[in-house]
Amino acid sequence: MTRAKSPTFQILRLAGGILLAGALLAGGRYAVSRSAAEDARAIPAPMLDQPAAAGATSEVAVFAGGCFWGVQGVFQHVKGVTSAVSGYDGGAKETAHYRVVGTGTTGHAESVRVTFDPRQVSYGKLLQIYFSVAHDPTQLNRQGPDVGTQYRSAIFAMNPEQEKVAKAYIAQLDAARVFPTAIATKIEADKGFVAAEDYHQDFLTLNPGNPYIVFNDLPKVENLKKLFPESYRTEPVLVSAGRS
């Protein structure tokens, strides 16, 4: 079962009391009649970055920022990323199932595990893309039309160095008042990432006409291309390609 069957048009009340006509999708997703994708903005690069370990060719980062479809889709188009997998982090392994996570009671957040080559893209650059185009970091437990702790803005630090860099970058952006309000993103300890069900993987690429993708996620990929042309690659790195 996917989240994109038989849309029923309704009136949605979004943040600020704005009323929009929209479609209720299976699984509780909404697609609205104008793009609900978070506004991207140009932001400075982090002043503190994680240096690549000597001889390292692969590192891992985990980001949560609303529905994992869009976050995965963005990072799959980033040069230097070798894998971006949708999944769950923040809760127990036993509850890492879509229907259970959707109750908002498991502690999990829809997340994306990003494996990258630090010789080509740094952890700091991934953070810059995450805060700039992948989601709205001023929203804690909601992104666009999705509401709940499972859609929270969170960075799951894989090591003390990542935690240090992420904390410093949040402080840098807040001090510069890059966003209209303070960044709500929480830095959490990794509790063990669990890959999501197969039908969630590569969802943006495989379902470009899905109403939720069209309104909420394709604009994020376009913003990546516009704001980070040096980091954008046309062909995404797909989970399915690694299985062939």
Notable traits:
alpha+beta; Peptide Methionine Sulfoxide Reductase, Chain A; six-stranded mixed sheet; globular
Would you give an account of this structure?
This protein has one domain (56-239): 2-Layer Sandwich (Peptide Methionine Sulfoxide Reductase, Chain A). The chain has seven helices and eleven strands. It has helices at 68-75, 98-101, 123-134, 160-175, 203-206, 211-227, 239-243; strands at 8-13, 19-24, 30-32, 59-65, 81-89, 109-116, 142-143, 146-147, 153-157, 186-189, 194-195. 44% of the residues are buried. The model is unreliable at 1-37 (pLDDT under 50).
Count of domain modules: 1
CATH architectural grouping: 2-Layer Sandwich
State the helix count.
Answer: 7
Mean pLDDT over the residues: 87
What general form does the structure show?
globular
Please list the strands of the largest sheet in the order they lie side by side. 10-9-4-6-5-11
Number of strands: 11
N-to-C terminal Cα separation, in Å? Answer: 23 Å
CATH fold-type name: Peptide Methionine Sulfoxide Reductase, Chain A
Instruction: Write down the CATH class.
Output: Alpha Beta
CATH homologous superfamily descriptor: Peptide methionine sulphoxide reductase MsrA
